[in-house]
Specification:
Helix content is about 30%, strand content about 35%. It has 4 helices and 7 strands; from the N terminus they run ααβββαββββα. It has helices spanning about 1-20, 45-55, 110-115, 160-175, and strands spanning about 60-65, 70-85, 90-105, 120-125, 130-135, 140-145, 145-155.
């Protein structure tokens, strides 16, 4: 279910951006300082991420880079698990995971379209130019210098802890842009 929500967020964002590609050239923020070839996997080191997420340094990191419409990086730590409900009280172990989606040349209007699905959106200060947290989606989306970033960290069954860790990674990522 949680993976479905992440995919839904990515697809919603992709759909919103595709529909807005018809916008005039003036609406596209040309202040991006990144390269289209750059992957979100390369912005922060594995050790920076492990420290931010409180993952032991010796935990093996599985990292998958995807570059369909927008570069995405998926991290997984199979040795770090937490219980979650699968169905009707049946529990299973879920590995710690994090995903980062990175879109470049995004302006404020496109940012607003990307967070339109955040019916429970909470404004977050001190992360980029604009940042919104969605408890239901379990992710933060922020805009900085024409870069739109979605970060979702799930390292425990505690939603407040996951939020704090997602925000910590978002701040680190924003500093590197």
């Amino acid at each position: 279910m949680k993976k479905t929500l992440v995919l839904l967020a990515i697809l919603t964002y992709t759909f919103a951006c595709k529909n807005s590609e018809k916008s005039s050239a003036e609406e596209i923020d040309a202040n991006s300082h990144t390269s289209i070839e750059q992957s979100p996997c390369e912005v922060l080191s594995d050790i920076e991420i492990k420290i931010a997420l409180a993952i032991p340094a010796n935990a093996e990191t599985s990292k998958v880079k995807e570059s369909t419409q927008y570069p995405v990086c998926y991290y997984k730590w199979e040795s770090i698990t937490f219980p979650y409900e699968v169905f009707n009280g049946r529990m299973a172990d879920h590995p710690a995971e994090m995903s980062i989606v990175w879109a470049i040349n995004v302006n404020k209007k496109l940012y607003q379209q990307s967070i339109a699905v955040y019916k429970d959106g909470e404004t977050i200060n001190n992360v980029g130019e604009m940042a919104t947290w969605s408890q239901k989606m379990g992710q933060i989306t922020f805009l900085k210098d024409g870069n739109l970033i979605h970060i979702k960290a799930e390292t425990s069954a505690n939603a407040a802890s996951n939020k704090a860790k997602s925000l910590k990674v978002a701040k680190l990522f924003a500093e590197k842009l």
